[in-house]
Amino acid sequence: MTQTPALSTPPPRLAADHPARRMLEWIGEPAWLIDGHALHLCAANAAACTLLGLDEATLARLPVEQLIPTPEDTAFWLGVRAGDDGPLHSETVLGDAAGARRHVSRRIHRLGATPDLPACWLVQLQDRSTERAVQDEQQRTLAELQATLESTADGILVTDGQGAIRSFNHRFALIWGLPSELLSRRQDAAVHEHLRLAVEEPELYARRLQTIGQAALMGSTDQITLRSGRVLERVSQPLLVQGRPCGRVWAFRDRTELVRATHRIEQLASSDPLTGLPNRHGLGQALALALQRARTQHQPLAVLVLDLDHFQHVNDGLGASVGDQLLQETAERLRGCVRHQDLVARLGGDQFALLLREADQSAAETTARRVLQAVGQPHCVEDLPFTLTASIGVALYPVDAGEGDVLLAQAEAAMRRAKLSGRECYRLHQPEDGAGDRRHQMRMDHAMRQGLAQQRFRLHYQPQVDLVSGRIVGAEALLRWRDPELGEVSPAQFIPVAEASGFIIALGDWVLRQAVWQAAQWQQRGLQMPVSVNVSALQFQQAEFVQRVADTLAEHGLAGELLELELTESLLQDGDETLGRLAQLSAMGVRLAIDDFGTGYSSLSYLKRMPLRRLKIDRSFVRALPQDESDAAIVRAIVQLARTMELTVIAEGVENEVQRRFLQDIGCDEFQGFLCAPALDVPSFEQRLVNPPEATGPAPRPRLTLVRPGGPA
């Protein structure tokens, strides 16, 4: 406190045993008495001396105005001297003896004279510094919370237990298009009615709100479509105080662009841009639905696969543009050969397929003859007349098979037999044709099992390259097999056989162990090189798969961040069990990726819930980039989808600089393919790290001791 000259003559004070002193001590808080006539301190308790930092004798020498030296106190005592005896009760700031500022509440009121005590003024102080600090902290916390709410991309709404609006951010008002005058009036009923009328299905919206409100302790996540066309993800969590619900917090995220990108990918992935027909993927979806209905209603159906004969001669002789024109015309002729309930699809190149619902063998043969006649009608281009012919294969349900992919394969095999029979004809699937294939599969399955036991499998590693820096940032482990009798067998041949027989589980476990061992060897030599491993759906679905991954990482001492598991899109349909396993893997640090993205059917509702890090664009979309407009549009959409979901996207099968530059321009993150390197054995891969090709751009060169690892036993 500020010091002023003390009084020259110490004023009288109350005796040590005076009852007023006991009263002051009983008060407990800092307090003192001021003589009502002389206006000097006549008694102070110990709390007052501690607060002011002076003993009572020193305080008594100070003018009354200096005990609490504020303008308000000075004015008060001047008023007392002028005859004003009104009380004073207000907040002020007091400096203590240590120089610290204290927030205090001060009360001054007059006490009437008693036989033991003349008229005097009682001054009481209450230290509110702690309370004020708590209030200041609450205000800071509230300001930080408000700033956080305003900075988020989500619209936030907080309601109490009765649905009354407690708070919201501006993003909430913007997403829902709330008028400013409606918000300024804070009319909760009007706001809720605006929200209800803004959605496409108001009644369903109201029922859903009621359901959420009844589950007071549970959170919820769903999707809302507004009349404006916006699609919102709505997340609701209960607001709990001491474990009891007192309201809800609602978060609304605009998912419009994500949904549009997903729909665009599905549309592009299911249709052929040249002819407008469904593509192979679209045919697969339609065939699955048709078979489901055929089983229910006990009806037959047929699949026809058609391939134009010698069509390459047209492209070579007349040019690709004329070839495209003829494919479009062929598509129109095929449409004219089927009924409205049937489907025509383009499988790729000059190959088409027909799905005939409610069609037995007789109907299928009739349609095949009609198609041969329609395709064989003359064409004329640049005054050059010529004729196209076709070869057709036919497979029937339920006579030949009960699954869509098997029917399609059988029809393709029958079409190839038609080609061998001289073309311009059709052939029905013959069951005995598959006997040789089955014997071959049995032989290969046996050879694979022997090969694994005799260590004839090996892993090669294909570099994965950052498109911006050119650095090699990862390696995909790819399985290779050389058999003494079969020679070098392509994975495209033995992997389907392994999946069909179930041997893929043992084979996949070997790949996982070998890849983790190799990554651990690199890690021990100072090279942090993430390794990607393909996981089949059958392998992933094993009950002990997650534990097997954990045990393998622990056995070799590899950090989970250096292992990436590439999964197929089919797993996105398996629901909560898949999500649980993925969450366990992610908790270990294991990276998760979707392989060959775009070739299957991805459910957005599951995709956004999965702890994924990367999407991998299938090589079939990269092969014709950037000339093929359909493939270019699909790749752009996948990159946009990945960017929206904050995922890394990598393209496989990049073979030339034009493809690489296109991918870099549209924002793709990484690539792999022959432009950098094929799958390499370990010494070659390590050499590529030391001497990266110029095509991949500049890259740091880690120092390695190039020792060929022997691999785990």
UniProtKB/TrEMBL annotation:
Recorded hits in PROSITE patterns, A to Z, give: EAL, GGDEF
Q: Give me the ranges of the annotated region Disordered.
A: 692-713
Q: Where is the EAL domain?
A: 441-693
Highest rank taxon of the organism: Bacteria
Q: Which residues form the GGDEF domain?
A: 299-431
**Gene3D superfamilies with a match to the protein in the record:** 3.30.70.270, EAL domain, PAS domain
**Record's InterPro entries?**
Biofilm_reg_signaling, EAL_dom, EAL_sf, GGDEF_dom, Nucleotide_cyclase, PAS, PAS-like_dom_sf, Rev_trsase/Diguanyl_cyclase
- Protein name, entry field: EAL domain-containing protein
Give the organism the record lists. Pseudaquabacterium rugosum
